[in-house]
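Morning!

This is the sequence you dropped in the shared folder:
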Amino acid sequence: MTPHTEKNPLDRMGDKVAKNVDERVDVVVMGAGAAGLMCAATAGFRGRKVLVLDHAPKAAAKIRISGGGQCNFTNRTVTPEDYICANPHFVKSALARFTPEDFLALVELHGIEYEERDQGKLFCAQRAGDLIHMLQTQAKWAGAEIRVKTPVQSVIAPTQNAPGLVKTDSTNIACETLVVATGGKAYPKLKATDWGLRFAEQLGLSVRPTRPGLVPLHLDGAALAFCQSLAGNSLPVALQTADRQVRDQLLFTHQGLSGPAVLQLSNYWQPGQVVQIDWLPSQNALEALKALRGENGRLDRWLQTFWPKKMVQAWLKWYPDTPINLGEANNESLEAIARELHSASWYPVADGGYDKAEVMLGGVDTDAISSKTLAVKTHPKVHFIGEVLDVTGRLGGYNFQWAWASGHAAGSVA
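The structure's back. Tokens below.
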């Protein structure tokens, strides 16, 4: 009696795919960024034959430029509350199964020096290129192949019954599983595109509205002139828009406002909304001003204990009727000064766009995706990971941690 042997799924191809195959692999990962490389290594270590494709000239270009060239690759403390997603529960499974400690173990395995900065942010001590080398080495050890400068012409998605077909300029590749790790639209100079979003729509998936995130805010008129006069200066502030408040450093630029506080707030700010600025978040200005009045103190000298002299001069020019000698000020004047110090109203006219954005907000609707495997519920042989999904972390290493966690989740089953 002849024993029954199950055929490889890649041999059970429909005519449309079978006639055009030049190569066969188990997994094609679309995108050689943070999530894609993590997924490739994870799947490769499971014995899967993995091919990573990217149209860009180099792998992981976004890692190379992030964090001032040192890459804020994760954070000591990561929780689901650090992410914006229409389904706030979606990120829980992947984040719980691959933690910052898990990624740090990899960093330490490869002997990469790192440093911890404010608010638990972890950076490469030398250069981000060390991290890219680590990810490429992991993929190599796992037997995964990475091909850059490889544009994709078309994709037939794999199904439970037939493999997919990925057509490039030079070859046709059959795959049992397809992982979309193409990122979002931020940093178009680094060859970022909306390919993953368009492919999701071809599969019939919903894509939530996208816009730039972690991005500077632009101003015009007198407010812009104020910022331009202080370009390059920064100071701690508290910002609020709608019901969201952020406390961190603000940086003045030639276009308006930037710095960690503004980038964080930009994820929540909508065009037309006011931004309330507390210029002295650690002070009770009204009480301090009243005390200074009793001492016949000067406003400019007091402000210089918190701000650079240039900022004091610009702020007093912005409010030309403000009394300098507080001994002459009445209660109404002191209350007005305190209001402007703690709740100044500024109206950005636009954000800096995808050219200046660190991430893309919105993306593939997570209702269509398994939170455990990152597979499409209606197409279980297709996975979406990383920034292409409607998951955006706040500033501080959270978006990279999502890349590692989602890549690991998909790679564990792909």
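Headline: The chain is about 30% helix and 25% strand.

More detail when I'm at my desk.
O.
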